[in-house]
Amino acid sequence: MTYDKQVVIFGGSFNPPTLAHEAIIRACLALPQFDEVWVMPSGSRADKTILVSDEHRLQMLQLVKAASFQDDIRLIISDFELQLPRPSETRRTLAELHSAYPTVNFWFAMGGDSYRTLPTWPGADEFVPRLQLIVFTGPGTQVAAQDHVLPITLPPEFDDASSTEVRNLIAYHTSASALVTPAVLEYVTMQHLY
């Protein structure tokens, strides 16, 4: 099949978006074979409740786009999954994406931890064999390249830049400025998140 567009989807809770998320977005935008990168916040899942509103997460991602990517038109902040019934399920999101965008070829960006647990996700046997993946790992962790798997290693400074760590730092009134862009930290502070 001939596709009109090649798109990377980078999903996650982005609660809040961190510098590690930004590094993944930057790496995806640098891949010349793709036309766009869609950053797609997920809704609450059966195994994970997200306590910050969809609107806050979307707004923080828009701030990242403006501050760190100069509003690059190839970077799309998408609420596609947020419009679907809850709890979110990857298999449902994939089916809805292919139905809504039949002429778009999607690749999915994810971290190595998610990649390793992928076979245990609900309905994995239905959708995993058809996925095209860009897998991000840290130094010392390897994922084998395959026709449908493109591994990329992130620099070690992003190993500790998790959303959980940012929330913990903020909860304990400790600076998270080394893990998030200033615009996000300012937003979190003004909105009294976490």
Structure write-up:
Helices cover 35% and strands 18% of the residues. By secondary structure, the chain is α/β, with parallel strands linked by helices. The protein has a single domain, classed as HUPs (Rossmann fold), CATH 3.40.50. It is globular. It starts with a strand and ends with a helix.
User: What summary fits the major beta sheet?
Assistant: 6 strands, parallel
Broad CATH class: Alpha Beta
Helix segment tally: 7
Helix and strand run: EHEHEHEHHEEHH
What is the helical fraction, as a range of percent?
25-40%
Tally of separate domains: 1
Q: Uncertain segments of ≥5 residues (pLDDT<50)?
A: none
**CATH superfamily, called what?**
HUPs
Termini separation comes to 46 Å
Radius of gyration: 16 Å
The side-by-side strand order for the widest beta sheet comes to 3-2-1-4-5-6
Strand-pairing-aware structural class: alpha/beta
Share of residues in strands: 15-25%
Mean pLDDT: 93
- Tell me which CATH architecture applies here: 3-Layer(aba) Sandwich
What would the principal axes of the Cα set say about the shape?
globular
CATH topology: Rossmann fold
Outline of this structure?
With 194 residues, the chain is of the alpha/beta class. The protein has helices at 19-29, 54-69, 90-100, 112-117, 124-127, 163-171, 182-191, and strands at 5-12, 36-41, 75-77, 104-111, 133-137, 149-153.
Give the SSE layout:
Elements: E1 5-12, H1 19-29, E2 36-41, H2 54-69, E3 75-77, H3 90-100, E4 104-111, H4 112-117, H5 124-127, E5 133-137, E6 149-153, H6 163-171, H7 182-191
Parallel strand pairs: 1-2, 1-4, 2-3, 4-5, 5-6
Helix pairs in contact: 2-7
